[in-house]
């Protein structure tokens, strides 16, 4: 099969690899219908994270079940499925608490499963999924092909944006600031609207992203940064800062911006993987009674409810994909995202 | 009038001071019926915080309204009142959000009001209260003298313990660990029980405090510290850590203990004023999806609901007072708390 392999900085290749097979009884093999490139894939692409040896890459995909192990009970060959960006057993304490992203059997596609067996990356033709019952979510038939981008968005970015909004305590009538205009930040805008926020301020300087933010429900756009941004937010919200702030970047600067955007007693939800220097200044948080909540999204917990809204047409998270390419052009997909020519690229094997 | 003045390390004196009078239209002067010594009063007492000049001290009191300014509308002379440990105007954005501890007109007893006028400390015969309408809570007549310790506990420790429990997300059927066996930690145990927690693990090595913790609703006591404590908590909770952890100390060690006691996806509520070295390790919090929430309690927001439960007999937070002394023996009150001979000392002018 064809699979995307990263060899090093800006060195993405499409290569022939052996097709995965069921190894454990709980495995499923899925034929990928659509995959995509994540902002976090750009870290090794840009060399921010070193690639020590060539390895398969990609962790977001949807597809059709091709084969299942004998221990799989909830899936059948031919099922159309959405995969969260990590595996989860569905039975451990974390899974029972709806926190599948800290599952005892968490594994990343493109890495190894918890038995040490390699897992294909999602940017390829087939993927082996461990703990398939606890991981995959079936899309009911008949599958509307036009919804493929939105199904795929649930795999990571929409679930992650939703997690940020939940962590930030977004609810009916809350005011929200979203720091970060990438696919996750934009999904956070959509999640905030879905959860009933009345004022949603997207921080962005990028015209296309501003437009999509507005389409997703942003009521206001703030282009300013730093102190000026805080001033602007107060101005927009009648003299106060936001009830809820979504931080969807992970840098020191974005975290500072997020903390400076939340009102005393408010909540900050962060899903940007903390990069070097991101900090939580305890004295500031204590003095202003700010709640900080976040981490890797338990996408598996959220997909069923978000899927309902995709199927009903209530949300259209697939709008984050503004470029579609065949899998064979995956290198161009990375380049387009790296150069910010595309918000997010959908790949078709 | 008599008032407690701190002169320096271990130098607490009772002195004659001018009786306070109404200065601003919103002021009330309260004749103190009972006051007490707070764990945080021990910081200057022990010299951890330097006392640059002698000043009045104490911030927890209940009493009877002695006079009111012409702008006061909800209080009358003779009303029995509970004062939160800070003043609040009741009208600013923070107050409207129920976060009176970040009020625009926040002032500390023993310090200055927001006009720069000195406020008496609570450990004295009379206190001037700014923004009295927004600050004081009236206890309905007739006042049951036996409930005085519990009314007084609402001024700070019970409200603070409750804030920690709220911040930690304690609710029906949650499991809770309480780090800290001072009056606030013990109040946190009581607050957790009141909010419906089913398992409450108090960390304490002190027999009397363990006994009070059990009386307040602790189902288990853990004497271990560090890794051993984590092991013990898992053992007690069937292999997992706690849903909610209350941190009521504020040191580096207690914060580490608290973080190590909460399950992935759980919540940590902290009310211990962060002392040098207390940290929030963002990567650990992110990896385990731990929510961290806390700060100075908005006691004014909580007193009405807690007061109802005191009046009905549902809770008896005044049990934290295990020593009562006349105001004239305030120096002995500090010594008893400093030497851990008393959990908390009630003072009667």
Word description of this protein:
2 copies of one chain form a homodimer. The relative contact order of chain A is 0.16. Chain A has 2 domains: 2-156 and 298-348, Quinone Oxidoreductase, Chain A, domain 1 (Alpha-Beta Complex), CATH 3.90.180; 158-294, NAD(P)-binding Rossmann-like Domain (Rossmann fold). In chain A, strands 3, 5, 6, 9, 10, 17 and 18 form a 7-stranded mixed β-sheet that branches. Helices cover 29% and strands 25% of the residues of chain A. In chain A, helix 5 (157-167) packs across helix 6 and helix 5 packs across helix 11. Chain A is globular. Chain A is of the alpha/beta class and 349 residues long. Chain A binds chain B through residues 93-94, 97-99, 101-102, 167, 239-240, 263-265, 267, 270, 273-274, 278-280, 282-283, 285-296, 298, and chain B through 93-94, 97-99, 101-102, 167, 239-240, 263-265, 267, 270, 273-274, 278-280, 282-283, 285-296, 298.
- Helix tally of chain A equals 12
Number of E strands of chain A: 18
- Give the SSE order of chain A as H and E letters: EEEHEEEEHEEHEHHEHEHEHEHEHEHEHE
What is the assigned CATH homologous superfamily of the largest domain in chain A?
Medium-chain alcohol dehydrogenases, catalytic domain
* Spatial extent as radius of gyration of chain A: 20 Å
Proportion of residues in extended strands of chain A: 15-25%
Say what the CATH topology of the largest domain in chain A is. Answer: Quinone Oxidoreductase, Chain A, domain 1
State the end-to-end distance of chain A.
10 Å
Percent helix of chain A: 25-40%
CATH architecture group name of the largest domain in chain A: Alpha-Beta Complex
What oligomeric state do these chains adopt?
homodimer
Structural class by SSE content of chain A: alpha/beta
Biggest sheet architecture of chain A = 7 strands, mixed
Shape of chain A: globular
Query: Largest interface, by Cβ-Cβ below 8 angstroms: which chains and how many residues each?
Result: A-B, 35 and 35 residues
Q: Regarding CATH, which class of the largest domain in chain A?
A: Alpha Beta
